[in-house]
Amino acid sequence: MLRYNREKHDLERAAAAIFIGIYNQNHTPKLRLLYQRERPDAVLQIQDPLQRQLGMEITHLFYDSEEAKRLLGRSKNHAHSQELIELLVKELNYRIQIKEAKISTYATEYPIALLIRNASPSFGMSDILREKHLLYKPQGKFTHVWFLSRDGTNEWLLKDLNRL
Questions:
Q1: Which helix (H) or strand (E) is 36 found in, with range?
Q2: How does pLDDT run across 29-47, given as a tens digit for each residue?
């Protein structure tokens, strides 16, 4: 369990760092990671005169559990079935709904955003955007629902699903 918690912490830290880098290139005021914790996963500081805080719940999107195991080095199975974008979108929708239910149990004095990092190498940002009509509409529990994904290159892209 300790290895899993360390790995989860490292994945969340990496996602937060990628997010902050892209966000700060395109927005002001800038953000910085204040600290990591469990509920929410990270707390960011808004670099303005008020030094406000923003909570961030972080999740990673994999096509399925077998892909997650394979990418995290826990599976010796290198073969995989043909993947369908509709199934990845279904998993994305499920992740948003699970996080919305979880956020209702948090007691924080600051707003919370959701960051979804697409870890699946099979589909990228353009694939998700092409299927935006299938996306679950977030219910306003998060200030933003950020989607972080590659799109056939090593460059990360960032979209707010609330604004699609």
A1: strand 31-36
A2: 999 999 999 899 999 999 9
pTM of whole model > 0.70? yes
Distance CA 149, CA 134 (A): 17
Residues 6+ apart with CB under 8 A from 128: 85, 88, 89, 92, 118, 135, 147, 149
Burial 114-125 (b: 16+ CB within 10 A, else e): bbbbbbbeebbb
CB neighbours of residue 105 within 10 Å: 7
Q: How many other CB atoms sit within 10 Å of the CB of residue 56?
A: 26
Give the C-alpha separation, 104 to 135, whole Å.
21
Cα–Cα separations (whole angstroms), residue 71 to 1, 35, 90: 18, 27, 20
Report the distance separating Cα 121 and Cα 95, nearest Å.
Answer: 18
What is the number of residues in the chain? 164
DSSP H or E run through 129: helix 125-130
Backbone angles phi, psi at 89, to 5 degrees: -65, -40
